[in-house]
């Protein structure tokens, strides 16, 4: 009887040790290599859709205190820092509210950034846009938060086709990505000239009229200029995607987006 009890207690201890080691390994993997990230909003359509699931490459830019869960890394500045490139899709920590955001890096330190009539100007030069058809989606609640999309052809009844004009933008250096247009009269389509301070970056969403980004100050829900310390990593590839309210709803999986590279 005593032997059976000791064996049972030993089994429990071994199970606890296995679980603890698994948590340690998962924590190290998440801290040093890749962090899972789920897309909760439509600010990066059509590059990223609500329900896309990806891993963020944390090795790309080095490590800061925000590389650890709960910002627990005892790091000042960045270790093994790597310079992000214009056009990268980046996950970063919001400098005020502590939320993780994902946007496209548009302005590097020292750049000037301005929007004029919905067209991006970098360092005084117009960034070329080429019409690339129309992005279509069903006007329905999307993702666990049940967000409704914004439509250029609105108002649209539930179940109708919601459209946005799609263009290909070519950044200096030749990198290209798709952007969407919904409204030609929004505040974000015509801005002042922003000068990116040293050690900071300027981010924008690809869904230009539906993104709280560096065009908006932190006081009104935007992100303003983002210090380098707040960068978490680069998004390179979508691993999985679900259009439903839950990842368990297999009939809503978008199989064409599995393992899709992010441009």
TrEMBL record:
Subcellular location: Membrane
Regions that span the bilayer: 20-39
Keyword annotations from UniProtKB, A to Z: Hydrolase, Membrane, Protease, Transmembrane, Transmembrane helix
Membrane-topology descriptor: Single-pass type II membrane protein
Catalytic activity of the protein: Cleavage of hydrophobic, N-terminal signal or leader sequences from secreted and periplasmic proteins
Similarity field: Belongs to the peptidase S26 family.
PANTHER family named among the record's database cross-references: CHLOROPLAST PROCESSING PEPTIDASE, SIGNAL PEPTIDASE I
Protein name per its UniProtKB record: Signal peptidase I
Gene: lepB
């Amino acid at each position: 009887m005593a032997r059976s009890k000791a064996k049972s207690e030993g089994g429990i201890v071994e199970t606890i040790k296995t679980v603890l080691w698994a948590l340690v390994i998962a924590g190290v993997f998440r801290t040093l290599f890749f962090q899972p990230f789920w897309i909760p909003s439509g600010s990066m359509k059509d590059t990223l859709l609500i329900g896309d699931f990806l891993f963020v490459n944390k090795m790309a830019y080095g490590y800061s205190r925000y590389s650890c869960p709960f910002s627990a890394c005892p790091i000042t500045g960045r270790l093994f820092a790597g310079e992000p490139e214009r056009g990268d899709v980046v996950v970063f920590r919001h400098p005020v509210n502590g939320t993780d955001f994902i946007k496209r890096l548009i302005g590097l330190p020292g750049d000037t950034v301005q929007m004029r009539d919905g067209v991006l100007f970098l360092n005084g030069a117009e960034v070329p846009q080429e019409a690339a058809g129309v992005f279509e989606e069903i006007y329905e609640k999307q993702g666990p938060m049940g967000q409704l999309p914004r439509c250029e052809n609105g108002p649209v009844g539930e179940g109708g086709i919601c459209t946005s004009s799609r263009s290909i933008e070519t950044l200096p250096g030749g990198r290209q990505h798709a952007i969407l247009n919904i409204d030609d009269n929004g505040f974000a389509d015509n801005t002042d000239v922003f000068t990116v301070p040293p050690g900071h970056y300027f981010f924008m969403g690809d869904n230009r009229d539906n993104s709280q980004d560096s065009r908006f100050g932190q006081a009104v829900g935007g992100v303003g200029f983002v210090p380098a310390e707040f960068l978490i990593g680069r998004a390179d590839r979508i691993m999985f995607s679900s259009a439903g309210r839950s990842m368990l709803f297999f009939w809503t999986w978008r199989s064409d987006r599995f393992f899709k590279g992010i441009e």
